[in-house]
Amino acid sequence: MTAVREQLPEGRYGRSADERADRGLRIAGAVLGVGLLAMVGWFGYDYVGGQRISAEMIKWDVTADDRVEVHLEVRKDKDAKGYCTLRSRAADGGEVGRRDVRFDAPVSRVDQVVTVRTTARATSAELAGCTTDG
Questions:
Q1: Please, are residues 80 and 129 in contact by the beta-carbon 8 Å criterion?
Q2: Res 50: pLDDT
Q3: Chain CA centroid to CA 34, Å
Q4: Cα atoms found within 13 Å of the Cα of residue 100, Cβ hemisphere only
Q5: Residue 97 and residue 102: Cα distance in Å, rounded?
Q6: For the purposes of burial, counting CB atoms within 10 Å of the CB of 104, is it exposed (0-12), middle (13-18) or buried (19 or more)?
Q7: Mind listing the pLDDT tens digit for each residue in 53-98?
Q8: Which of 10, 89, 110, 132 has the fewest CB atoms within 10 Å of its CB?
Q9: What is the DSSP letter of 9?
Q10: Consecutive H or E run containing 37
Q11: DSSP states of 61-113 as a string?
Q12: How far apart are the C-alpha atoms of 55 and 127, rounded to whole Å?
């Protein structure tokens, strides 16, 4: 009596259609994965390298009912010109003061105390962001 085979002999007729499809999916997934990693890397590099002005608010102090003093440290390229926006908020969260501070001096680090005038007593101050000219 002879045994009946349910599968073709191994290696005799090449790869099956399922194996070819799996290989194609793996190749497509690898190409898409590499592309995604390259895109994330490019966006990260552009974000970090593209910022020519960055700032940090060291401390702030409410000195009167109509003003807040903010100690600001700015790092920038020497030739970069731009400004940073500071704002202060009241206890209810509403904005009571805003000031744009320009940085045009040809230095790479600026350490400055800035006064933000307010329309009511402020309870906080924050650095909204920095922008370069052009």
A1: no
A2: 62
A3: 22
A4: 9
A5: 17
A6: exposed
A7: 889 999 999 999 999 999 999 998 888 889 999 999 999 999 999 9
A8: 10
A9: P
A10: helix 17-50
A11: EEEETTEEEEEEEEEE-TT--EEEEEEEE-TTS-EEEEEEEEE-SS-SEEEEE
A12: 8
In angstroms, what CA-CA distances link 69 with 59, 85, 122, 130? 8, 14, 11, 18
CA 29 to centroid of chain Cα atoms: 27
11, pLDDT greater than 90 = no
Question: Would you say 78 and 38 are in contact if contact means Cβ atoms under 8 Å apart?
Answer: no
Average pLDDT, integer, range 111-118: 94
**Above 60 in pLDDT, residue 1?**
no
3-state secondary structure of 122: coil
pLDDT score, position 16: 65
Tokens of 107: 């230095």
